[in-house]
Amino acid sequence: MVPDTGKGVPPLLAAQAQEGDGGVMARRATLDRDEQSAVHDETLAGVPIPARKGRQAAVPWRGAGGRWAIWVLRAVAWAALLLIAFRGVAAIMTKPAAAPPAGAAAAAGPTFPVSLAKSYAQEFGAVYLNFNPATAGQRAAELSAFLPTGTDPQLGWNGAGTERLQSEQVAAISVQNDHSAIVTLLAQVSDSLIELAVPIYSADGGMVVSGEPALLPAPARIAPPQPASQQADSVTAAALTAELPGFFQAYASGDQVTLSRYLAKGTQVTGLNGAFAFGSIQNVTVPFGGSARNITVTVLWHQATGAASPASGQAVGAAPGGLEMTYQMTVVRQGTSWYVQAIGASTQAQSGPP
Predict the structure, then answer these.
(1) Residue range(s) defining the domain that contains residue 278
(2) Which of 98, 100, 164, 325 has its CA 20 to 30 A from that of 190?
């Protein structure tokens, strides 16, 4: 049996102490040194460590409960990056081209002077398309102002025959580069309609006819298509035939007070200011429709009083000259009357001779 020491020591330890006090003392001394060393190390580190009371409590396992928040934050971050990237690309694709800085057009180099070349070619044509052996010297002198030095002064004319320019207009211009272009003139020469292509060279503010012109055919005469047949409103046509003479009389004189009586609200028409006198209504074509109609009106105009004179070759007291013209008009009905809303040229094909 193991005797009870009476000091609260467990029997097993008391038995070990009896068997060898030295061994117990050695183990206890070692334990004391280990505890003192640990306390000493913790003191040197400046971090007090509380006394241990049995086994340290294990940290509870959190499982995957905290990871879902991380995945949500990652998804939000990726979405934000993708949105920024998309908007950046869209901004680049839709960004308008930057306006060129002031003076950039001038720095790009000279451009061909189109307006000047048209006028220059027209002046040249007025000399070139007139020739007569009696005035050959004058023609050569006038042409020299348009030609390079050393060029044939008659520019290809052999000195025979005559030609008379009646009228000319610039029909077109084809710019080849910054210095060269072809100006095409439409001219009436000796009762014939022609085109004349004139090569023009421009540099350093100067201009010259750089070569011989080319004679080209005038635009071919063609037949326009006939208008599609449509049923006419003869009742409205008769009403307008009675109302429109007053409008055209005011239109011929340009009297705004009288003219305004025939115009729809908000419409403005200037008139001819006495250049011609109204003769008569020759024809009115009115399609069926509502309160607004697009109609065609043919009018006979007379020369204004006093236009004939002995100088014009017309005998004084003779019947005035007349011109038949066709108009496209828009009229609107207000109450029982029709008012003019617009007037202009008609594209209707010309009818045959009366």
Answers:
(1) 234-305+320-345
(2) 325
Indicate if the pLDDT at residue 114 is higher than 70: yes
| Distant-in-sequence, close-in-space partners of 58: CB < 8 Å, separation ≥ 6 | none
Least trusted range by pLDDT, from 134-138, 312-316, 320-324: 312-316
Q: What is the CATH number of the domain that holds 200?
A: 3.10.450.540
Q: How far is CA 76 from CA 66, 71, 73, 88, 313, in A?
A: 17, 9, 5, 18, 96
How many domains does the chain contain in total?
3
pLDDT value at position 216? 96
306: which DSSP letter? T
pLDDT greater at residue 216 or residue 89: 216
Q: What is the spatial distance between Cα 96 and Cα 265, in angstroms, rounded to a whole number? A: 43
Amino acid present at 176: Q
| Among 36-40, 63-67, 79-83, 336-340, the range of highest mean pLDDT | 336-340
DSSP secondary structure letters along 109-175 = -----HHHHHHHHHHHHHHHT-B-GGGHHHHHHHHTTTS-TTS-TTTT--S-S-B-EEEEEEEEEEE
Q: Which of 282, 271, 293, 272 is nearest to 338 (CA)?
A: 293
Distance between CA atoms of residues 191 and 167, nearest Å: 10
Please state which of the ranges 201-210, 261-270, 317-326 shows the lowest mean pLDDT: 317-326
Angle at 307 between CA 303 and CA 309, to 5 degrees: 135
pLDDT of residue 228: 79
Encoded amino acid at 293, one letter: R
- Find out whether 327 and 297 touch, Cβ atoms under 8 Å: yes
Residue 133 confidence (pLDDT): 96
Q: In the chain, what's the furthest Cα-to-Cα distance?
A: 175
Least confident of 28-42, 55-69, 227-241, 306-320: 28-42
Q: What is the DSSP-derived secondary structure letter of residue 319?
A: P
Single-letter amino acid code for the residue at 107? A
Q: Are residues 270 and 211 in the same domain?
A: no
Closest to 230 in 3D by CA, of 299, 282, 296: 296
Query: Quick one: 130 and 213 in the same domain?
Result: yes
The secondary structure of residue 133, as a DSSP letter, is G
CA distance 326 to 9: 140
Query: In the prediction, which pLDDT does 291 show?
Result: 94
